Amino acid sequence: MSTDKIFSAPIEKIGDFTFDERVAEVFPDMIQRSVPGYSNIISAIGMLAERFATPGSNLYDLGCSLGAATLSMRRNITADGCQIIAVDNSSAMVERCERHINAYKAKTPVDIREADIREIEINNASVVVLNFTLQFLSPDDRQTLLEKIYQGLLPGGILILSEKFIFEDQTSHELLIDLHHDFKRANGYSELEISQKRSAIEHVMLPDKIETHKKRFTDIGFSSSEVWFQCFNFGSMFAIK
């Protein structure tokens, strides 16, 4: 696993963060050292997929990056005749995802697609995963995508949504940001790396409040939703049709 040193040297002009070749190369290290609880979320996605996957249905990993959630689902599902559809718009991510998926043999086939998740058809779905993906879409596109997912879910199907959250109470919000930065420091990131990464991503990743997510789910028609995991200002939710 290559070490993330993308922001370790001073950058004269910091551009917007992109999931390019450099990021794809170090992504496993970056995500483990940057997102508290990431491994727990990935493991639990497999557990939820095992519970909710129904025979002959599709499971979607939208914004699959290197395929961690896809592999977790494929390792855990026991229902017959399922297919996992993994989608990402980064060619560098898709290329590596294909290598990772093909390295492990399993009965459930995986269809890996390089595409915009907003243009993918969702149908016959028992499980849909958006693992730290929705926050990179423009706010106007989020409701539309979630509505399309709802329409493509089978009755009783589940959407798993992992995100960074913002909070109404300013004291709590700032404390959770500070704790996240402490987490990154404890994982070896320097002050320069933390600062430059934050500058690169602040206009690209626009998090929502938990209440905003829940309101969307309710307005769309999901029967229930809840936060099932949270560590500092990162977490994961489910919504059941």
Short description:
Residues 61-157 form the Methyltransferase domain. The protein is of the alpha/beta class and 241 residues long.
Could you characterize the architecture of this molecule?
The protein is of the alpha/beta class and 241 residues long. It has 2 domains: 18-120, Rossmann fold, CATH 3.40.50.150; 154-240, Vaccinia Virus protein VP39 (Rossmann fold, 3-Layer(aba) Sandwich). The protein has 8 helices and 8 strands. The protein has helices spanning 21-34, 38-52, 68-76, 91-102, 139-152, 170-186, 191-201, 210-220; strands spanning 58-62, 83-88, 110-114, 125-131, 153-166, 208-209, 224-231, 234-240. Strands 1, 2, 3, 4, 5, 6, 7 and 8 form an 8-stranded mixed beta sheet that branches. Strand 1, helix 3 (68-76) and strand 2 (83-88) form a beta-alpha-beta unit. The N and C termini lie far apart (38 Å).
Mean pLDDT: 96
Tally of DSSP β-strands:
8
CATH superfamily of the largest domain: Vaccinia Virus protein VP39
Low-confidence stretches: none
Our count of helices gives 8
**First CA to last CA: what distance?**
38 Å
Structural category is alpha/beta
The CATH topology of the largest domain comes to: Rossmann fold
Estimate the strand proportion: 15-25%
What is the domain total for the residues?
2
**Biggest β-sheet strands, sense, barrel:** 8 strands, mixed
Name the helix and strand elements from N-terminus to C-terminus, one letter apiece.
HHEHEHEEHEHHEHEE
Rg, alpha carbons: 18 Å
Helix content: 40-55%
The CATH architecture of the largest domain is 3-Layer(aba) Sandwich
Catalytic activity: prephenate + S-adenosyl-L-methionine = carboxy-S-adenosyl-L-methionine + 3-phenylpyruvate + H2O
GO molecular function: carboxyl- or carbamoyltransferase activity; methyltransferase activity; S-adenosyl-L-methionine binding
EC number: 2.1.3.-
Subunit structure: Homodimer.
